[in-house]
Design brief:
about 45% helix, 24 strands, globular, alpha/beta, eight-stranded parallel sheet
């Protein structure tokens, strides 16, 4: 039998049990023991689910209370000194302080930086290292979770982030070379591998996703050095796992590393199979990633079988494993939980559990197990039905795209001209203050939405509450002196889901939760067909808010690239085509907002950098259609309508020209965690438009004071002129509580006032 295995599994639980346990712990409603009990129950349940779905070998140590990269830093004691006392006194508090920051019991600690995991919407905590960093084993989580899985009767493979990818994904606080720390790190890895060997682990999975990136000579040398050192130790067999793309020119490097198995992604990069088979050492296992770990569509099992049979013919059955393309962390748990989806669309879907069942079907068919044939026939019927479905294609959408004029992606005038028109219209002060859009979604708001959706409340009752919340939000902003207001987004469940619910071509799940970071989960929409907008989506509540105030209210939209990136996207046409369809739907919304008197409109694109291909040679093509899509959505307005966009957790150095090409009048960005480091890209490029560098990290429970915000604005002022600077939080305030939000925004307004006073004195 060809071995069916898995690289990683969702953590949160079918009912988001881990989220609830974490947040109860953070609110001091429970203690450490109930949180750890919930974690243990989820591991037990998920291992059993994977075995029942058909996996012969299950992963362990892929579970995390927050993030697996943070777990790796903690495991090897890469704890910055400022967290050390708390980490030693209360390890769980120290761990969460690194992830979220803390401000209690006289301890005030910022969180570590957070950024996107390759081109996914999963965020990882960036380890912070320094020259001379010492590493040692801190605890034995991988060993204990392996023993736990084995005690429950499972054949388990511990999963570790590989040493080179760990360093490449880290940053150094002093600007020193990360890879110079490799020799210090490897003894800790070797010690851990030895402990896993002694515990009885036959295999360990070392994830090295950086092997699909562009690597230089130093990176390649680090890989050779690292794996040569580990080869000489007492250890289990090593599976080198790569995913999210092709090895490409790194294939010779990967093949020469002294490991015992190699995993490759044959969904993102199917063409690499022949090259891998042609150079795989004779003693090595090949794990085939033939089912998509990043998307929710049922697999083409005939294609997967053809790939598997080619590999078996070349290598023999014992050297071929079947697996998803990557960890199943990036898809929902179980499609069988969905009871409300249209039956035909539901049949097209495969979540984590179903993907393992598909792999087992492929393995059984390749061995000739006749009982697997009905599953294969069903899969063939489903794929054929999806291709033929009249729900998928809309002639009017295709015609609109075909008839699109090139001028549609350009504003009528240059930014320099528009700036004057906008200054004349809005009369904003220096350092204008605003927020990114959402305000706290309280338990009252969430409960009202649940009652409305379940039919317990009428539309009139629900609308009355939203109107009340919106009016209070507008009044609060006016009272504290914010210059450009927002309506608060109390009617919205999620920044992507809210729009998808009102667009043709989307469906939504009830339980399709995917972890974004920490306890934050999202329920990505599923784009199954051509996209169009049947009716206005946001005009009502934006116009209502604007009628309550004489100050400008921003209309708030999620941009086409972000809707694309944060959805599960159809795989039967180019992503660029789907993105342009989204752009045209949003263009209609922008023009309706403008006609309703909303003359500042924010089109959020936090996922623009996230969508960048992993290989530089592919960047230009992506950035071309991504920027064009944003401009299609934004460019139909008058010169004195101000277009904002927002981006968070992005390294801008690589894409600053593309950011400028978006031609937004104002961009707001996340900068507080990096202490304004991200602004360096804007300085080197001489970014001409206006920028709001975030001065309040909303992903942390700590509340910065006025002095801290002023200090950040002063740092921004070293890079940007006062005329360019806006003052705003890093991101939306949806996940924060009202008490901390009030305090932070009052300080934000006061920080802007201080900066204006200083400018007056300087003049």
């Amino acid at each position: 039998m060809t071995t069916v295995t898995n690289l990683g599994f969702p953590r949160m639980g079918a009912r988001r049990e881990l989220k609830q346990a974490l947040e109860a712990y953070w609110r001091d409603e429970t203690q450490r023991a109930p949180l750890l009990d919930t974690a243990g129950q989820l591991r037990e349940r998920h291992w059993k689910m994977q075995r029942e779905a058909g996996a012969h070998v299950v992963p362990c140590n892929d579970f995390s209370l927050y993030d697996h990269v943070l777990d790796t830093a903690w495991l090897f004691d890469a704890i910055p000194e400022r967290y050390r006392a708390l980490a030693d006194a209360d390890p769980l508090a120290g761990y969460f302080a690194m992830a979220r920051g803390t401000q209690r019991a006289g301890v005030d600690l910022h969180a570590l930086e957070m950024t996107k995991w390759f081109d996914t919407n999963y965020h990882y905590i960036v380890p912070e290292l320094h020259a001379g960093q010492a590493f040692r084993l801190r605890g034995d989580k991988p060993v204990q979770e392996f023993l736990e899985a084995r005690a429950q009767g499972h054949e388990a493979r511990p999963v570790l982030l590989g040493p080179v990818s760990f360093l490449l994904l880290s940053k150094t606080s002093d600007g020193s070379d990360r890879l110079a720390l490799l020799d210090r790190l490897l003894p800790a890895y070797a010690e851990l591998l030895g402990k896993l060997h002694d515990a009885g682990a036959e295999w360990v999975q070392l994830d090295e996703p950086c092997l699909v990136l562009d690597l230089d000579h130093e990176d390649a040398a680090a890989y050779r050095s690292a794996y040569a050192a580990l080869a000489g130790t007492t250890r289990p067999k090593l599976l080198l796992a790569t995913y999210f793309g092709a090895l490409g020119d790194n294939l010779p490097l990967a093949q020469e590393l002294p490991v015992d198995g190699l995993h490759i992604d044959l969904v993102r990069a199917p063409a690499q199979l022949d090259a891998v088979l042609g150079s795989l050492p004779a003693d090595r296992v090949l794990s085939l990633g033939v089912v998509d770990g990043r998307n929710v569509w049922r697999a083409d099992l005939d294609r997967a079988m053809a790939i598997t049979r080619v590999a078996i013919e070349r290598l023999g059955r014992q050297r071929v494993w079947l697996a998803p393309s990557c960890s199943l962390l990036h898809v929902p748990l179980d499609a069988s939980l969905e009871k409300a989806l249209p039956a035909d669309v539901h049949a097209w879907l495969a979540f984590a559990r179903q993907k393992l069942e598909e792999l087992r079907t492929v393995a059984d068919m390749c061995k000739g197990v006749v009982t697997a044939y009905p599953a294969l026939e069903h899969a063939r019927e489903v794929i054929a039905a999806r291709r033929a479905s009249p729900k998928v294609h809309r002639l009017a959408v295709a015609q609109r795209l075909a008839n699109l004029d090139a001028s549609a992606a350009h504003r009528r005038s240059t930014y320099a001209f528009r700036r004057g028109k906008q200054q004349q219209r809005f009369q904003l002060p220096l350092f204008p203050t605003t927020t990114i859009g959402s305000f706290p979604q309280t338990a009252e708001v969430r409960e009202a939405r649940a009652r409305y959706k379940s039919g317990q409340w009428s539309a009139a009752e629900y609308d009355a509450l939203i109107a009340e919340q919106t009016a209070a939000c507008v009044q609060f902003q006016e009272a504290i002196g914010i210059d450009v207001l927002v309506h608060g987004e109390f009617e919205r469940n999620d920044m992507v889901e809210y729009f998808g619910e009102q667009l043709d071509g989307f469906v939504f799940t009830r339980h399709g939760w995917v972890q974004s970071y920490g306890s934050r989960c999202v329920k990505p929409p599923i784009i199954y067909g051509d996209v169009q907008r049947p009716a206005p989506m946001t005009v009502r509540w934006s116009a209502y808010a604007q009628a309550l105030t004489g100050r400008p209210v921003k209309g708030m939209l999620t941009g086409p690239v972000t809707v694309l990136q944060w959805s599960f996207v159809r795989d039967d046409q180019p992503r660029a085509t789907t993105c342009r369809q989204l752009a045209l739907a949003l263009r209609d919304e922008v023009l309706d907002l403008e006609a309703a008197g909303i003359r500042i409109i924010q089109i959020d694109e936090p996922a623009l950098r996230e969508g960048l291909p992993l290989r530089r040679a592919d960047w230009a093509g992506y950035l071309g259609w991504a920027v064009e899509s944003f401009r299609l959505a934004a460019s139909g307005v008058a010169d004195d309508t101000q277009i904002h966009t927002h981006m968070c957790y992005s390294e801008f150095n690589d894409i600053i020209e593309a950011v400028a090409a978006m031609d937004a009048d104002v961009i707001s960005i996340e900068t507080s965690r990096s202490r304004m480091e991200l602004l360096g890209a804007f300085e080197r490029f001489r970014y001409p438009n206006e920028i709001g560098p975030g001065v309040y990290d909303i992903h942390s429970p700590r509340v910065p004071d006025v002095a801290e915000m002023v200090a950040l604005l002063e740092k921004a002022g070293e890079v940007l002129s006062p005329e360019q600077l806006w003052v705003n939080p890093d991101c939306g305030l949806k996940t924060r509580g009202w008490e901390e939000t009030r305090k932070a925004l009052v300080s934000l307004v006061e920080a802007a006032r201080v900066m204006r006073e200083r400018m007056t004195i300087a003049v």
